[in-house]
Amino acid sequence: MFEISSNFTGEMKEKVNFFYLRGAFKYQKLGFVDRMMMNVLRKKLLKKKPEELDEDSKGLLAAYENPIDWTDRKAIEPIVKCIKEQ
Questions:
Q1: Could you give the number of structural domains in the chain?
Q2: The organism sits in which domain of life (predicted)?
Q3: Which of 7, 26, 27, 86 lies at a C-alpha separation of 20 to 30 Å from 40?
């Protein structure tokens, strides 16, 4: 998962609740600029040996051909719980 430690001070992390929700990826629906940026990433990943790729990178490469959806409705439960507790 994405690392927040370097982006926020200790004080900020104490005052703010953080939640991580994944989305979906459908290359064909991206706009021109986003497709160009994703092509740069794809080329960079394809230059690596297959054994050097982590599972997320392998999944992303596969998603160029077959759209993927990482959304999970259960992921909102911590957000709802946090709101109810306030």
A1: 1
A2: Bacteria
A3: 7
Tens-digit pLDDT string for the chain (86 aa): 456 667 888 888 888 888 889 899 999 999 999 999 999 999 999 999 999 999 989 988 999 999 989 899 999 999 999 999 98
The whole-model pTM stands at 0.62
Q: How far apart are CA 82 and CA 17, in angstroms?
A: 8
Residue 10 within a domain: no
Cα–Cα distance for residue pair 63/32, rounded to 1 Å = 17
Distance of CA 81 to the CA centre of its chain: 23
Which pair of tokens denotes residue 48?
């690596």
How far apart are alpha carbons 72 and 85 in whole angstroms? 22
Distance CA 35, CA 28 (A): 8
